[in-house]
């Protein structure tokens, strides 16, 4: 049922985008004189994390898109490889369609497929991404899983230019669930927060920017209890080293 | 046999009468060496820039253009008045030139002066496909010179045009390395107080706009006639000579402030048309503009031609010298300017650029040449404050140029036609064109609509249209109308100069008039390559013409403006 709702959302989004002004008349120069489709591949995070409890993680957050000003198709990848278990602790693939809804904001809709170690989940996704006043980059999504559980994540990033090449990025991520999904360790209420501070240097244009930083992860409430029950930690400090890449 | 002979005789006569000239141009893949980097690009006759085409006013030229690329190409004769099928814009004038094909352009030369040519296909022009045109006049020129050089500038970038466009779409500030930093903030707060500095940052941050948003594409090497600063293009002279320098800005994105330290320049032509001579120490050349200046050199020493980009992120350099190898001092780049609240025009109260807000702003009449309510940010005015204001910049704008030696900097207001081409008459109607955009998304438009969603602007043959450009963005846009002259309104009536590019500074309103005397379909666009390709472009359709009845033309001319 929820899967159906999600895919209908995507359809609706796509339809809105394709119905954009069809008033303009035939003019072949619109093709020859306009750059229409664009693509990009980037990894905001490509890093190795070492925790205060000797946990080692490899983390990837990748993004690839293709599309026009009016409609983009996006593949978002998020993975956390745990060294100790030789397994993906997190493995998410999101396929979304994205359309502008305001000068600074885009709406997204699509599906998210989680296939980490342990039970899999499929979610319908409805999200909002863009630039808030004072240069905060915001990304927030509503997820409805195939088990009928609903959750919301929220991410904010601020880049502080120490110089035009040394860039400090501060990130905040949180997850709130509206219902419990014990199987995958999700409790009701605020699940977790992650705060990161990374200092990077734009080494090759904006294509390759190595960084070092610290990340603080914390689990709350029932989620923390679930993590403890399964022998996991509820609070971690990580030292991170990695690079931001963009093609 | 007889007939052939007759044809030959007539043919011969015809050539004598019309004075035809034939040129061959091949479009080739070339290597471009800037001294800083070597880049694969596109050129003409095996080189970038291509050859200098020397035409004579009154002749009929035939130009065979052979496409040796594996993609479509085209050549647009920038600033030339010609039949629209010869204008070289694929999709408007003609279909374009296929790989391996030769297209023959043929048109009469009806003007004189300095112009240029470039590809109008994709990003071939930023990739190197440009060259100069010099047209010798039929009559005598109202100035003398002993020697002349074409000085063709460009902003050669290590990235291809496609890549630049894509990067700008991914992140509009991709190439901007002049953004305000934390250390700038501390410097600012020690100067004017922490709270004031913070307030300033908050104000700009609230609107999600950047003071440093002057040059979208930085990281280029400025070239003069294809040579980078280190390669130092040199023009030789004999002391005592008058030298005519034909400056052409063939950049994709960059305005240049040009000076020759130690020499005064006399501006005699703008966009190919003679102007009443103005002596200046420095001038700003917009993208796609041309300025001809005459310098008189008495001393036997070298002089640097120094062209700083408007945002001071790069420069081009050449030398005038009595002997090859002589050089003069190369000045340092001056400090980068910053936009002020004045450059923001109507955005101050709105904070975003949606169509609704645009409509409001129009009512406010905040943009325009009389900015009585503006100039809140007098702290940032810099040198501009003490100089007489240039009416072609918003009052208190951070972009108002000043000459490095404190002398005369050319303004549009100084340009007066030497010999008016048209009678001065009342325009038949006014068309308002708001220059609009969304910097964050890197979308550029006219009246809030991108080219792909827009209907053409329809003009009637025989009318004189007054265009009102209202720049509602924070960028400077060099607007280029193909096929017909742009008569820039500097308030001098019949002495208003003829141009082919009208630069419109942020938060200003500039008027131009056009005698609609060229039937057919024409392109009209911002000449910043990545703005044009992002939607700041229109097709102009001129209805009627000498072939149809004039009565119809005049009647239709009474109709209203752009729908």
Please supply descriptive tags for the structure shown above.
heterodimer, A: 247 residues, mainly beta, Porin, 3 helices, 12 strands, 12% helix, disordered N terminus, B: 563 residues, Immunoglobulin-like, six-stranded mixed β-sheet, 7 helices, globular, disordered C terminus, metal-binding (chain B), oxidoreductase (chain B)
Outline of the structure:
The complex is a heterodimer of chains A (247) and B (563). Helices cover 12% and strands 58% of the residues of chain A. Chain A has 247 residues and is mainly beta.
Q: Can you describe this structure?
A:
The complex is a heterodimer of chains A (247) and B (563). By secondary structure, chain A is mainly beta. Chain A has one domain: Porin. Chain A is built from three helices and twelve strands. Chain A has helices at 2-18, 29-32, 221-229; strands at 38-51, 56-67, 72-82, 87-100, 105-114, 121-132, 136-145, 150-161, 166-177, 189-201, 208-219, 235-246. In chain A, a hairpin with a 4-residue loop joins β8 and β9. Chain B has 563 residues and is mostly beta strands. Among the domains of chain B are: 2-140, Sandwich (Immunoglobulin-like); 346-403 and 420-563, Immunoglobulin-like. Helix content of chain B is 13%, strand content 33%. A six-stranded mixed beta sheet of chain B has the order 10-9-12-17-14-15, with no helix packed on it. The longest helix of chain B has 17 residues, at 2-18. Chain A: Residues 1-24 form the signal peptide.
């Amino acid at each position: 049922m929820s899967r159906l709702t999600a895919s209908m959302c995507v359809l609706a989004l796509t339809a809105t985008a394709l119905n954009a002004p069809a008033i303009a008349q035939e003019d072949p120069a619109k093709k020859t004189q306009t750059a229409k489709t664009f693509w990009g591949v980037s990894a905001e995070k490509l890093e190795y994390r070492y925790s205060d409890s000797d946990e080692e993680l490899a983390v990837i957050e990748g993004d690839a898109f293709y599309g026009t000003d009016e409609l983009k198709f996006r593949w978002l990848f998020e993975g956390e490889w745990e060294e100790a278990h030789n397994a993906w602790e997190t493995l998410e693939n999101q396929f979304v369609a994205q359309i502008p809804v305001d000068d600074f904001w885009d709406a997204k809709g699509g599906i998210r497929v989680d296939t980490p170690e342990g039970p899999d989940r499929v979610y319908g996704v409805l999200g909002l991404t863009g630039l808030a006043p004072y240069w905060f980059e915001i990304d927030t999504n509503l997820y409805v899983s195939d088990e009928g559980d609903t959750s919301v994540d929220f991410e904010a990033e601020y880049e502080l230019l120490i110089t035009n090449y040394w860039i400090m990025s501060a990130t905040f991520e949180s997850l709130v669930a509206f219902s419990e999904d014990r199987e995958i360790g999700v409790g009701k209420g605020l699940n977790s927060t992650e705060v990161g501070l990374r200092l990077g240097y734009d080494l090759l244009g904006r294509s390759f920017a190595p960084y070092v930083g610290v990340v603080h992860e914390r689990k709350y409430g029932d989620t923390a209890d679930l993590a403890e029950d399964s022998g996991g930690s509820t609070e971690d400090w990580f030292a991170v080293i990695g690079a931001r890449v963009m093609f | 046999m007889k007939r052939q002979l007759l044809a030959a005789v007539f043919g011969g006569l015809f050539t004598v009468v019309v004075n035809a000239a034939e040129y061959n141009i091949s479009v080739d893949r070339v290597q471009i060496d800037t001294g800083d980097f070597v880049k694969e690009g596109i050129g003409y006759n095996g080189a970038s820039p291509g050859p200098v085409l020397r035409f004579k006013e009154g002749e009929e030229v035939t130009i065979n253009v052979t496409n040796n690329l594996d993609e479509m190409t085209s050549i647009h004769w920038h600033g030339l008045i010609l039949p629209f099928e010869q204008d070289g814009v694929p999709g408007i004038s003609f279909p374009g030139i296929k790989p391996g094909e030769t297209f023959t352009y043929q048109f009469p030369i009806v003007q004189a002066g300095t112009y240029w040519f470039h590809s109008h296909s994709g990003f071939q022009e930023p990739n190197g496909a440009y060259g100069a045109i010099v047209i010798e006049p039929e009559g005598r020129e109202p100035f003398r010179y002993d020697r002349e050089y074409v000085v063709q500038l460009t902003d050669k970038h290590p990235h291809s045009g496609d890549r630049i466009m894509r990067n700008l779409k991914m992140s509009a500030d991709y190439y901007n390395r002049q953004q305000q930093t934390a250390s700038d903030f501390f410097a600012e707060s020690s100067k004017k107080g922490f709270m004031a500095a913070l307030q300033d940052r908050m104000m700009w941050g609230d609107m999600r706009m950047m003071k440093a948003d002057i040059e979208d594409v930085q990281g280029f090497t400025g070239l003069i006639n294809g040579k980078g600063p280190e390669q130092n293009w040199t023009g030789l002279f004999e002391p005592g000579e008058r030298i005519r320098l034909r400056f052409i800005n063939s950049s994709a994105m960059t305005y240049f402030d040009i000076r020759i330290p130690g020499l005064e320049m006399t501006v005699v032509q703008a966009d190919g048309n003679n102007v009443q001579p103005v002596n200046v120490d420095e001038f700003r050349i917009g993208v796609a503009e041309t300025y001809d200046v005459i310098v008189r050199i008495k001393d036997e020493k070298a002089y640097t031609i120094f062209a700083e980009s408007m945002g001071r992120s790069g420069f081009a350099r050449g030398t005038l010298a009595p002997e090859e190898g002589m050089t003069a001092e190369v000045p340092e780049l001056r400090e980068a300017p910053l936009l002020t609240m004045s450059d923001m025009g109507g955005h101050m109260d709105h904070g975003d650029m949606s169509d609704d807000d645009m409509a409001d702003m129009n009512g406010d009449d905040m943009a325009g040449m009389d900015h009585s309510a503006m100039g809140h940010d007098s702290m940032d005015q810099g040198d501009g404050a003490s100089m007489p204001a240039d009416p072609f910049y918003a009052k208190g704008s951070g972009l108002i140029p000043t000459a490095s030696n404190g002398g005369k900097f050319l303004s549009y207001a100084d340009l007066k036609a030497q010999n008016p081409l048209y009678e001065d008459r009342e325009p038949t109607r006014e068309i308002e064109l708001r220059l609009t955009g969304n910097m964050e998304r890197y979308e550029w438009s006219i009246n809030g609509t991108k080219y792909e969603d827009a209907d053409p602007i329809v003009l009637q043959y025989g009318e004189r249209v007054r265009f009102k450009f209202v720049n509602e963005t924070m960028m400077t846009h060099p607007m280029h109308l193909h096929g017909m002259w742009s008569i820039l309104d500097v308030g001098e009536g019949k002495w208003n100069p003829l141009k082919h590019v009208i630069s419109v500074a942020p938060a200003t309103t500039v008027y131009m008039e056009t005698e609609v005397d060229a039937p057919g379909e024409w392109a009209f666009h911002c000449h910043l390559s990545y703005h044009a390709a992002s939607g700041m472009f229109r097709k102009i359709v001129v209805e009627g013409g000498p072939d149809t009845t004039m009565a119809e033309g005049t009647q239709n001319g009474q109709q209203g403006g752009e729908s």
